[in-house]
Amino acid sequence: MILGLLAVSRRPVFLFSNMNAYNLFFQRLKDNLPEELVSKVRQKSDAVFSAPSHGDFDRWLEAVEDMPDIRPESVDFSGDFAAANAKIAAEEQLKISRSLKQLHPWRKGPFDIFGVHIDAEWKSSLKWERIKDKISSLSGRKVLDVGSGNGYYGYRMLAGGAELVLGLDPTLLFVAQFLALNKYFDSSRNFVLPLGIDDFPKDSEAFDTVFSMGVLYHRRDALEHLNSLAGHLRKGGEVVLETLIIDSREDVIFAPKGRYAKMRNVWNLASPSVIMRWLENAGLKNVSMIDKTPTTSKEQRKTDWMSFESLDDFLDPQDKTKTIEGHQAPIRAAFTASK
Predict the structure, then answer these.
(1) How far is CA 196 from CA 42, 121, 176, 238, 309, in A?
(2) One GO MF term, please (predicted)?
(3) What are the tens digits of pLDDT across the range 181-200?
(4) Domain positions in the chain
(5) What is the Cα 226 distance to its own chain's centre?
(6) I need a surface site. Which of 110, 120, 161, 311 has the fewest CB within 10 A?
(7) Cis peptide before 110 (omega within 30 of 0)
(8) Measured between alpha carbons, how far is 157 from 316 in angstroms, rounded to an integer?
């Protein structure tokens, strides 16, 4: 059932079945965050939905609308698969699968929608398991998830007790994936908005925990990004940062010339000591590295839900410790710091 419709230039661009969850989420934000902040975020989010920058966004939303209206018997975000559970007819399951595959590629997951297993490129559950018990409890916390993707981690955060999770991601495909998932999860406590951190009002000091996972190396100015994260943190709150690193005990900053692991937009990789100093320079305290893990094909790989190139294509076929360009193969680390 279509609950929201906004026509711009005679074409529908704001079609998604969980309009009610969208409105309820902003009501929750009003109940928990400064009113002026929420108003600005709502205006910017509505503006993007009204005039999306990607020509396929209408098609993706139509795929969401084509999915049958089914009320799950239960939802479960506590396991590896964020899941909506119910016994449904095979024809309905096939229709859901076809619609979800129109939202290819799926980068984060896994999900289970009524028996449709979305095996995303990243087994994001592995990263979550590595950090979830090493960060401050999320119980009752208001969370900002920068670069949230399709909302997988936000659902896991809800299972960890978060009061609400505001996800930010300007990639409209990932927003469409979230809308498809949330058609059945129907959560008004986790929502992915089509915004980047630069679209968000600065220095809100409104959140108990701020996550930035897989974003820092895509930012031209790493310290500016960390200052921005710190500015959205209340006193006593915690930043959780996860990023690619250079695995060295020395102070090292590496700016790839050209691509890194076939990625165009990797600006700076740094050793843990440098990243920890950056966090301190952003005004944060109690900085700690809580995890360091090489990325392997058990965690990142091609699947039926992400059939493009993946990790194995990014590494030197003769030496998996190096990227195809001859750089150190991806190693990721997670850090915590408090305000």
Answers:
(1) 13, 22, 15, 20, 25
(2) transferase activity, transferring alkyl or aryl (other than methyl) groups
(3) 999 999 999 999 999 999 98
(4) 16-338
(5) 17
(6) 161
(7) yes
(8) 36
Q: Alpha-carbon distance 230 to 285, whole Å?
A: 11
What does each of the 339 residues of the chain score in pLDDT, given as a tens digit?
Answer: 333 434 343 334 455 677 889 999 999 999 999 999 999 999 999 999 988 999 999 999 999 999 999 999 999 999 999 999 999 999 999 999 999 999 999 999 999 999 999 999 999 999 999 999 999 999 999 999 999 999 999 999 999 999 999 999 999 999 999 999 999 999 999 999 999 999 989 999 999 999 999 999 999 999 999 999 999 999 999 999 999 999 999 999 999 999 999 999 999 999 999 999 999 999 999 999 999 999 999 999 999 999 999 999 999 999 999 999 999 999 999 999 999
* Count of alpha carbons within 13 angstroms of residue 220, beta-carbon side: 1
Structure-token pair, residue 229: 């994260």
- Amino acid in the structure at residue 226: L
